[in-house]
Amino acid sequence: MVDVLVIGGGNAALCAALMAREAGASVLLLEAAPREWRGGNSQHTRNLRCMHEAPQDVLTEAYPEEEYWQDLLKVTGGQTNEQLARLAIRESSHCRGWMRQHGVRFQPSLSGTLHLSRTNAFFMGGGKALVNAYYRSAERLGVQIRYESPVDRLELRAGRFVAAHCGAERIEARACVVASGGFESNREWLREAWGQNEAGEWPADNFAIRGTRFNMGVLLRDLIAQGADTIGDPTQSHSVAIDARAPLYDGGICTRVDCVSLGIVVNKHAQRFYDEGEDFWPKRYAIWGRLVAHQPGQLAYSVIDAKAIGRFMPPVFPGEKADSLEQLARQLGLDEPAFMRTVKDYNAACRVGSFDHAVLDDCHTEGLSPAKTHWARPLDTAPFYGYALKPGITFTYLGMKVNEQAAVHFGGQASPNLFAAGEIMAGNVLGKGYTAGVGMTIGTAFGRIAGVQAAQAAIKNGANFATA
Q1: Cα 163–Cα 156–Cα 186 angle in degrees, nearest 5
Q2: Each residue of 217-229: pLDDT tens digit?
Q3: In the CATH scheme, what is the homologous superfamily, with its name and number, of domain 2-182+217-234+397-460?
Q4: Tens digit of pLDDT for each residue in 393-444?
Q5: What CATH class is the domain 238-392?
Q6: Looking at the whole model, is its pTM more than 0.90?
Q7: Could you point out which of 40, 229, 380, 382 has its C-alpha 20 to 30 Å from the C-alpha of 404?
Q8: Ranges of each domain in the chain
Q9: Contact 384, 125 (CB under 8 A)
Q10: Which PANTHER family match (predicted)?
């Protein structure tokens, strides 16, 4: 019998496995994906949002706990557990030394991400390099790793973990950490959650999955069926407006279109539907997938002019380019008169002050609904560009309710030996919304906590620890 079983293969699972092994537990990690696709959504990440009181290597200035908390409170609209959120925030202030010990390297913010240099530490080589470093370290420490090993169900007894069933195999362990992600790759579950809209459409049919195809929510559904306490709305997620030409799975960050705040966004009827300049892009980019999901056909179009070029990270795929707005409307397939009315109304409403995309400037609209609060400048300089957008789901927020020890709850009672980390419990902190890098904060913080707690639970269950 293994001491600690870790189910999942991304950042949170690897942090749990490493911490449990460092505590002396024997550890088996089960990854549903084949080796070449290991790492879950973590392989597509770039950075970790970190609290710090002073400049630290790749991080500039300071990003204190209270500011971090207020940023999180704002994007979630208060739908967050403050106790658990602050725990994750504090953990982010002292995890990077440990990460370096396991081979993770950091680099300063590059062009296009300089606005995050104070708040986010970037991984050298991105999430794929981070995942690979953790796997190398886990193998070196003696963590057993099995790929292509999806777990079908958990065997529980009064909220206590007994065994995991992986096909015909039954795997017992003294403690278990579930870090198997959300259900974003399960199209039927997405359809069930989102249902049909008033037009008779099934919005979820038009979603792309920015990350792994292996997050089917099998254990999430199994735990719900077995009475685990849940938290979160199944329609809430980290959901980004991405290039409509993106692949169905694993498009990652390169499919994101980052010029939204520099122009206007219209739906397929050429109507604006939300404030493009509400807040800084890293704090609001992950609401736009949901906004587009509620538009007809789940489509929208980001439109900019030449003044915006060079102020955002360009997408992998070039957008439509035209010498006139009328021509751009035709190329995007939009109704030309309706589009021109929208642009004319927007241009007339712009009150241009001191444009500065690095601050919440005074360039805004007046008498326009919806307003554009910041960075509002007329679309008047050719050439013009347009990008078709569709919803890109990164991970879902419905998950397991946990406590500060990352223990899964059943009827309000914490399990003595079943823990959850990463996306499967992120809804405790993220009720809605997102801010860049906080998903990795949650996964790292609660993965490390879950690993330690699982090792301690294994001791109580009679483990005979070997030296890690």
Answers
A1: 85
A2: 999 999 999 999 9
A3: FAD/NAD(P)-binding domain (3.50.50.60)
A4: 999 999 999 999 999 999 999 999 999 999 999 999 999 999 999 999 999 9
A5: alpha beta
A6: yes
A7: 40
A8: 2-182+217-234+397-460, 238-392
A9: no
A10: FAD-DEPENDENT OXIDOREDUCTASE 2 FAD BINDING DOMAIN-CONTAINING PROTEIN, FUMARATE REDUCTASE
